[in-house]
Amino acid sequence: MSAEHHDTPRTRAIDLDIEVPGTPEQVWEAVASGPGITAWFVPARVDGRVDGTVELDFGPGFGVETARITAWEPPRRFVAETAGEGRPAFAMEWLVEARGGGTCVVRLINSGFGSGADWDAEYDATEAGWRLFLYNLRLYLTHFPGQRCSSVLVNGHADGPVDRAFADLAAALGLPTEAREGERVAATASGAPPLAGVVERVAPNMLTLLLERPARGIAFVVSEPAGGGSAHASVYTYLFGDGAAEATARDEPAWRAWMQRHFPMAEAPAGQPAEG
Question: Is the bond into 214 cis (omega within 30 degrees of 0)?
């Protein structure tokens, strides 16, 4: 995945791309439909046409964000924008380009960030968050292409630096902080909702799992900068196949209660691209 920063006198944009498996039509379905976006980001609804809308549901207490579609060119490009409301217009442009070997490159240009120190934290956190979710797009298209997803996305608040928040989050779940890729791990702490699978990737302050329990899927256990010397503690689970919807309905209340108990006063929308 690559990133470029495009600055203008007034605004700047995040520019990211990632190579994913699939035909342009399959990849378009993943980035430009409600079920597709739900499978790697947050629950979404898309009215796919110019002047249609993209609705992103960031969870209880945070509501739904709605963007207007200003360009719609399947299976290659679409643009969705939200009104400025005291800030530059916020736009997301998605581009799909076929490559050899049955893959495509997905490029995201997220514009509307002001320049200067006051914007730096939002810009950097949003860019890092998009890196996580675009990586999840690749995992989804690799392991669960075209499958319906049921997700549970929860955030909590932690005092102190990001690395300490991650250590505290892993400890609260009973997960190892130094797991190796390919290793089977499970949340073993008393009262933790079911979470077990194979370590897919280990990164600073983040553990990615290919889940076996409570159903097949993907999970991210991650800490995120929250500004002011504090952090977010986040658990994102994406479940697929038999038992996924039932597991989500059963476990979501438990996850929200668990997060509020261990990391109360959640401050960011679940799934919002605000990781670090």
Answer: yes
- pLDDT tens for 45-65 read 999 999 999 999 988 766 799
Find the Cα–Cα–Cα–Cα dihedral 185, 188, 194, 198, rounded to 10°: 0
The 10s digit of each residue's pLDDT in 226-246 is 877 788 899 999 999 999 999
At 223, the amino acid letter reads S
Record the tokens describing residue 206, joined without a space.
Answer: 């983040």
Do the domains spanning 2-143 and 149-262 agree at the CATH topology level?
Answer: yes
How long, in residues, is the chain? 276
Which numeric CATH code is attached to 149-262? 3.30.530.20
Q: Is 179 exposed, middle or buried (0-12, 13-18, 19+ CB in 10 A)?
A: middle
Return the CATH fold of 2-143. Alpha-D-Glucose-1,6-Bisphosphate; Chain A, domain 4 (3.30.530)
Question: What gap in Å lies between CA 27 and CA 84, rounded to an integer?
Answer: 29
CA distance 262 to 81: 36
Rounded Cα gap, residues 10 and 159, in angstroms: 34
Task: Decide: 51 and 81 in contact? Cβ < 8 Å.
Answer: no
Burial (0-12, 13-18, 19+ Cβ within 10 Å), 24 = middle
* DSSP-assigned letters across all residues of 106-148: EEEEEEEEEPSHHHHHHHHHHHHHHHHHHHHHHHHHHHSTT--
Domain parsing of the chain, residue ranges: 2-143, 149-262
11-21: strand order across its sheet: 2-7, 11-21, 103-114, 90-99, 77-82, 64-73, 53-57, 44-46
d(CA 27, CA 159): 39
